[in-house]
């Protein structure tokens, strides 16, 4: 019995000591399989031929117990070092009053490879179906059972449910049921192609999808095998493409700009009616033209090279084109290139800008003429101002000498006349000085002389010089300076001139016994100065004229309150030169507030802005 079971057995069989796991015997099939002689194999531990680790062996033993099977899957090592997948059946037997283990070993390497290849192909099929939204199905007409792939179930929305013929038949929208039944009957009865397109309402989410299905009938199995594909996105894309083509055609035909498409040979591939109209050709004539037929700036070779180098980044340029009648038009071209299959096309949107170019040229000529006139005006003002200063200084000087009665006593009438001469001369000199300053600012010749000074002292100096004006009209002049304001760096002379002009204006337009307040405080990194009065106020309609040179707000006010119309214009210019700004708040009959701000360090602020 031992010989028939063991020695003469054609299956690979090993006899093992259950305590030491030493191999105590092997049949001829085992020696031949492993590549060892009987003497070499006897005495080896079973672990020597098992290529798995102890942990892997124990894990497989546990799996076998859980699955209630009497065989194990191991990897065995042969004498030549190669490993093979094996299926090992194990049992116990008694030989010569000794309990032993026997292992019957089946080589399953080829089977494992075949199973792995099958799994790989199934995975590829599942992946392909998932990517292509294609599912497969089979209906056994004898039993009515349905077998469907995972992707088919996903398409139907039946991933977690049992798929049945009734469920599938209920999924298409009702209006498609007759079409599907007819197609199936024609397949079964006349073997006509089953190729249908329909809509379903998915089982799990109720979403409507568009389905394409084809199938064949296998009479020998009495079964229908087919596939379904979710073509919803494809149909939507197809619809979008049709709509896009329609819109593109509308844009081409209705565009107010000329559109021309050029191929790589420089020939017109397509053009819209507007471009044909621009060049004076018929649409049929346009199809026969090349770029060099209308472009006057480039040679044929240059144009072909431009087409070769064109890409999808686009280029915007202006050129001139020749019409059919020989006249020239200015054209702005926005060109892009794109690949259509293996064909490269250049798309050009062409706008006739002949009118615009003419307008631009006229505007440029007008600008040059205005600049020339402005320059002449500035030169005239500067020259006349200098020429007028000399005699005015003489008039003012001699008037003051006469008023001091250095050449004899004057009667009251003489004093009044000479005083008017002096006063008028000084007013005219101030006007000339303002004109000179304004012309320098506008010509960019005025420079700021930066220095550090205390704001409070500069304000006090302005107050001291302007107090007589306030006293004369019995106006209360109040000054409020933040003691923490400290030192700033600016042009002190210009700063005082700004404040003097604003304060003198406030006094000028404030009635007797009114109030004028100067307030200075810190505002972040800025100095903020406000001059508030209780004067006549400014109307909203006059606000825009405030800082314009030679603009006076009201003829009546001009006669009542003398002025040049340049003071506020210079104030705004000087403030802006300090990189500051000014604003005005006013109400008719209640007064006005002029507020300006400049940086604590105007020079550093100017350098920082220039650097940035």
UniProtKB/TrEMBL annotation:
Pfam families from the UniProt entry: HATPase_c, HisKA, PAS, PAS_3, PAS_4
Entry-linked InterPro entries: HATPase_C_sf, HATPase_dom, His_kinase_dom, HisK_dim/P_dom, HisK_dim/P_sf, PAC, PAS, PAS-assoc_C
Predominant cellular place of this UniProt entry's protein: membrane
The EC number(s) this enzyme carries: 2.7.13.3
One GO cellular component, as annotated: plasma membrane
Top-level taxon of origin: Archaea
EC supergroup of this enzyme: transferase
GO molecular function, one term: phosphorelay sensor kinase activity
PAS domain mapped to chain residues: 1-68, 244-286
An annotated GO BP: regulation of DNA-templated transcription
NCBIfam families to which the protein is assigned, alphabetical: sensory_box
PANTHER family per the UniProt record, alphabetical: OSMOSENSING HISTIDINE PROTEIN KINASE SLN1, TWO-COMPONENT HISTIDINE PROTEIN KINASE
Protein name stated in the entry: histidine kinase
Organism: Methanosarcina horonobensis HB-1 = JCM 15518
């Amino acid at each position: 019995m031992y010989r028939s079971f063991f020695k003469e057995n054609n299956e690979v069989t090993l006899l093992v000591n259950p305590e030491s796991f030493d191999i105590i015997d092997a049949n001829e099939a085992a020696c031949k399989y492993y590549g060892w002689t009987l003497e070499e194999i006897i005495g080896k531990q079973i672990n020597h031929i098992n290529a798995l680790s102890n942990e892997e062996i124990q894990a497989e033993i546990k799996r076998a117990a859980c699955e209630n099977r009497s065989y194990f899957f191991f990897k065995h090592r042969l004498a030549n070092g190669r490993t093979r997948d094996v299926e090992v059946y194990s049992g116990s037997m008694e030989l010569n009053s000794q309990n032993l283990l026997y292992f019957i070993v089946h080589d399953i390497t080829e089977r494992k490879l075949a199973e792995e290849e099958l799994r790989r192909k199934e995975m590829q099929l599942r992946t392909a179906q998932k990517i292509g939204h294609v599912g497969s199905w089979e209906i056994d007409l004898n039993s009515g059972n349905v077998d469907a792939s995972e992707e088919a179930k996903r398409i139907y929305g039946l991933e977690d449910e049992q798929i049945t013929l009734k469920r599938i038949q209920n999924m298409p929208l009702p209006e498609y049921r007759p079409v599907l039944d007819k197609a199936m009957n024609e397949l079964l009865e006349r073997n006509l192609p089953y190729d249908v397109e329909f809509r379903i309402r998915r089982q799990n989410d109720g979403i409507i999808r568009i389905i394409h299905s084809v199938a064949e009938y296998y009479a020998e199995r009495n079964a229908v095998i087919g596939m379904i594909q979710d073509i919803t996105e494809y149909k939507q894309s197809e619809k979008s493409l049709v709509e896009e083509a329609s819109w593109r055609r509308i844009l081409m035909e209705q565009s107010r700009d000329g559109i021309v498409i050029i191929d790589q040979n420089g020939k017109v591939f397509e053009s819209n009616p507007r471009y044909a109209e621009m060049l004076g050709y018929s649409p049929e004539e346009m199809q026969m033209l090349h770029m060099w037929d209308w472009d006057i700036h480039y040679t044929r070779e240059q144009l072909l090279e431009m087409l070769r180098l064109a890409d999808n980044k686009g280029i915007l340029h202006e050129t001139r084109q020749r019409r059919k009648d020989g006249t020239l038009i200015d054209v702005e071209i926005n060109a892009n290139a794109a690949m259509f299959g293996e064909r490269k096309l250049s798309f050009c949107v062409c706008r006739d800008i002949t009118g615009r170019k003419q307008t631009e040229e006229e505007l440029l000529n007008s600008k040059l003429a205005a600049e020339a006139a402005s320059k002449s005006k500035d030169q005239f003002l500067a020259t006349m101002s200098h020429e007028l200063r000399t005699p005015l200084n003489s008039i003012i000087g001699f008037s003051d000498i006469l008023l001091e009665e250095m050449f004899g006593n004057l009667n009251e009438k003489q004093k009044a006349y000479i005083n008017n001469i002096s006063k008028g001369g000084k007013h005219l000199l101030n006007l000339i000085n303002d004109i000179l300053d304004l012309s320098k600012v506008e010509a960019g010749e005025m420079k700021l002389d930066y220095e550090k000074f205390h704001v409070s002292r500069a304000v006090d100096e302005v107050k001291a010089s302007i107090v007589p004006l306030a006293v004369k009209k019995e106006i209360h002049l109040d000054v409020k300076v933040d003691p923490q304001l400290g030192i700033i760096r600016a042009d002190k002379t210009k700063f005082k001139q700004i404040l003097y002009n604003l304060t003198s204006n406030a006094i000028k337009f404030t009635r007797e016994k009114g109030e004028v307040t100067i307030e200075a405080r810190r505002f972040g990194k800025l100095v903020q100065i406000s001059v508030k009065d209780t004067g006549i106020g400014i109307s909203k309609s006059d606000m825009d004229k405030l800082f314009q040179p030679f603009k006076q707000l009201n003829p009546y006010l001009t006669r009542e309150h003398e002025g040049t119309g340049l003071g506020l214009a210079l104030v705004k210019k000087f403030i802006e030169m300090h990189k500051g700004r000014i604003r005005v708040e006013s109400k008719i009959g209640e007064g006005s507030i002029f507020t300006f701000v400049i940086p604590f360090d105007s020079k550093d602020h100017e350098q920082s802005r220039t650097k940035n």
